[in-house]
Every structure is written in structure tokens, then in C-alpha cells.
Amino acid sequence: MSVAAVLLAAGLSRRFGDEDKLQMLLDGMPLGLHAARTLSALPLDHRIVVTRQNSLDWPDFTRVINYQPEIGMGHSLALGVRSACQMGADAVLVALADMPFVPLEHFAALLARHRGAASVIASSSGTQRMPPALFGRDWFERLESLTGDAGARTLLTDADTVAAKGAELVDIDSAGDLTGR
């Protein structure tokens, strides 16, 4: 089975303010690179990051530029999945660059639960299904047709789940989220 990580990093970060939140430092490293570093430690066949034009350097990742980030997260996800499909991936592990606290063990647990082309596995802190999530090949067509800001949320309603601590699934939406930790 060939698995590609698709790291979404093209958001406009409207709630964060004028600064590019993924370039803001968290523990001495740009916020966006925390998830990338964790994904780089996994035995994946491909690593894709979907970014805007002006973005960080993403070592170990194939960069796909989203020239229309205003269309929403669904468009970024569609671009990443399309790239993974072209690389021959059988599954995609979708992660968000503004979720820096997801541990390696959680990503590994998602991969371990993969059961083939029809599987979809989401993360959960007990209250909702959310990213990171893993989708088998049968989901690629639906993922490639996504638009809007909801991303793949509607596709996760019946997903199997891997539990995580709530603090591990926190995403950074505002400057206060960075300074308040």
C-alpha cells in the first residue's frame, strides 16, 4: 500500500490577522513546520504540502501551490489528493499545518487502522470526527471534487476513529492561541 501525506498549508488565516501564522514561531520553529517534521518521521511513500505562493520552505515535501486559496480548504485538499493520485498513492493521510501538537504515535495509529481502498479513519477527542484523517483510494474522487471551507468534514460522519487527547488536536487560529499556551 502506497500512502501519501497531504499537509494543508494554503489557508488565508483570516482570524489570525495580517501575519502569516504558519511562519510565526512556536518553540523556536515556524508553526507550519511542526506538523511537517512529525510527518517526515513516518514511513510514508510521498509527502505533499499544499501552500500559497509565498510560503515556507518545506523539506522532504513535494510542494503543490494553490493559486486560489480564497476558494477554501476543500480546493486545497482536492489539489493535494490529485497530486497523490498522480504519484500512485493508494491512501492519503490528511493533516493540517496549523495543528502542531499531533504526536507521531497518533499518525501511526491512523495508518495502522487502514484497511484498504474503502476505509476512512478520522481523529477524535471524543466529541467530533476531525483531521488528521486517512482516506483510502475509493474516496479520492469525492475528495478531488471538494470546494469551500468545510474540507472533508462531511465525509467523516461515519468514519472509524482513533482517539486523541483534546490538546493534541488543537489548531492555531489566532495569535492568542500561540501566546496562550
Automatic annotation (TrEMBL):
GO molecular function: nucleotidyltransferase activity
Matching PANTHER family: MOLYBDENUM COFACTOR CYTIDYLYLTRANSFERASE
Protein name: Nucleotidyltransferase family protein
SUPFAM superfamilies named in the record: Nucleotide-diphospho-sugar transferases
Keyword Nucleus: no
Taxonomy, superkingdom: Bacteria
Matches recorded under InterPro entries: MobA-like_NTP_Trfase, Nucleotide-diphossugar_trans
Domain (MobA-like NTP transferase) ranges: 5-159
Keywords: Magnesium, Transferase
Pfam families per the UniProt record, alphabetical: NTP_transf_3
Gene3D superfamilies: Spore Coat Polysaccharide Biosynthesis Protein SpsA, Chain A (3.90.550.10)
Keyword flag Disulfide bond: no
